[in-house]
Amino acid sequence: MDLRFQHRCSQCGADFFLGEAERLLHCRYCGVKSYLTAAVPFHFVLPHQAPADQEMIFVPYWRFKGNVFTCQASRVDFRFVDITQNAAPGIGVPESLGFRAQAMTLKLLDPQTEGVFLNPVLDLADILAKVAKLDPQPARETVYHRACIGERTSLVYLPLYRQRNQLVDGITHRPLRSLEEEENIGPQLSAPPSSWKLKTLPTLCPVCGWHLEGEKDSVALICRNCERAFGTASGEFVPLRHAVVAAGGGEAIHLPFWKLTVTCSNPLIASFADFIRVTRQPRIPPAEWEQRPMSVWCPAFRIRPKVFLQLLRAATMAQPPAAGDAPFGLHPLFPVTLPGSEAAQTLKLVLAGLTMKKSDLFPLLPATRFEVLDTSLVYLPFRDNGRELVQSCVPISIDKNALDFGRKL
Q1: What is the pLDDT of residues 261-273, one digit of tens each?
Q2: Which end of the chain is more exposed for a tag (fewer CB within 10 A), N or C?
Q3: Domain count, the chain
Q4: Quick check: 116 and 188 in contact, CB under 8 A?
């Protein structure tokens, strides 16, 4: 289930009710468009009706929702994980929020909120380590690599308060445990974490001032006026290297892919020909492949993990022509919903998935090191043949229903 949260328009104060992935806002009252971003995972608080005279105590919970991929035995596996985990354990409160975070409409944490905030003792890496231990596969199988791709993480605060000698749930008003006189509850802050600051950016091109375009869940916006694409970093818009491959005629839509030009050590991969030899593909690389840089092609949109791996492997083996200088024009562009930073997590997966003799390569994965030389966003034209979208130049096809379902992940 997806989280939903409440937010107010920065211009007129109208209320929005947004899904967890939604960042691009269009106020139906004042017409202003804006984009929500932050330098850290979003901080939410569960709504409460605690007595006004009680000092609130806010306990942090990490929320993780995403796909976990593993390279183990002689296969690449995946599974979906959706958990909340107490980030300040040992204080006698539930380890998980259960379905509360999904069943209630959350609020973005206001930096001016009064109360006592517990410091997260566990960071996100600790939670991911716990996610890894939930692996249902037999313990005797060696896991050579694990990657979380396309995950959504946030910090959700559970409101509590002290009443007499009881620690009370601020939502249900039920006692959670008894307290000793003057007992301190965990490492405390007197205010919300200073690192949390929501930024609302106007959706105007930083270069020419034209309107930026995107969907509610887009992580990259485009300017059709000056032909630029922008992502976000540290709460600001940053330019993205991009290319639009010209359509040959009859194409219905352009789909985005991240093209990562990489090199690798152990095994040594400096060209696409090296990649063909390392993965033992049943083909002899032509001489020109010795000079072709190795590029990994990753879908820049969320889609079911099985289809994601298929596209990752197919596009990387196809090495689509990326020399595109076509304008955005009026071409329909599918939204970018997977950040480029997530694409970098796929490098070992594509190597493991395409190698023909996995028993030889998998033990090398822990020591394998990729260096990303360049990252660019490439829009490839696809033709609509009814049930599928088909790329004209290379053998890649995508079921349209899978694309639609991926927007809901």
Answers
A1: 999 988 999 999 9
A2: N
A3: 2
A4: yes
